[in-house]
Design brief:
- Helices cover about 40% and strands about 20% of the residues.
- By secondary structure, the protein is an alpha/beta fold.
- The protein has a single domain, classed as Roll (CBS-domain).
- The strands form 2 sheets. The chain has a 3-stranded mixed sheet with strand order 1-2-3. A 3-stranded mixed sheet has the order 4-5-6.
- β4, α5 and β5 form a beta-alpha-beta unit.
Length: about 140
């Protein structure tokens, strides 16, 4: 089972030259709580989370409209191939110490994103099915 089939969602990119204010408008309502910072070829450069904005912009007393995304994004960005298994994603999330992994195609371009929450939802569903089978009357 590949992650792109079961746990991934579309990723939303933002230019490194965009203002943090522009990025926050784009981020509104996104369940993954982040934007992948991409270059003109859609290659991931970094990731911008709400936490990045809270700590590096708001916490520093800066105006979001005056700060560029590339000044506050988290980097390096850890990515995973879009054909990775759930096991590979789990290992990568743990070893990289992150909660979100942009997924890339064979060309290195942004293809989606998987979050720890997405992975938990898929695995919890599998465990629930397993548990239901164990507890069912024969």
């Amino acid at each position: 089972m590949t992650t792109s089939q079961h746990a991934a969602r579309p990723a939303h990119g933002v230019s490194p030259a965009a203002s943090v204010m522009e990025a926050m408008v784009l981020m509104q309502g996104l369940p993954e709580g982040c934007l992948v910072v991409v270059d003109g070829n859609n290659l991931p450069l970094g990731i911008l989370t709400g936490r990045d904005v809270a700590l590096r912009v708001v916490g520093a007393g800066l105006r979001a409209s005056a700060v560029r995304v590339d000044a506050v994004m988290s980097q390096p960005v850890f990515t995973i191939p879009n054909r990775a298994s759930l096991e590979e994603v789990t290992r990568s999330l743990k070893s990289c110490g992150v909660r979100r992994l942009p997924m890339v195609g064979d060309d290195g371009k942004l293809a989606g994103i998987v979050t720890a929450g997405d992975l938990f939802t898929v695995l919890w569903g599998d465990l629930s099915l397993f548990g239901a089978g164990l507890l069912a009357d024969p």
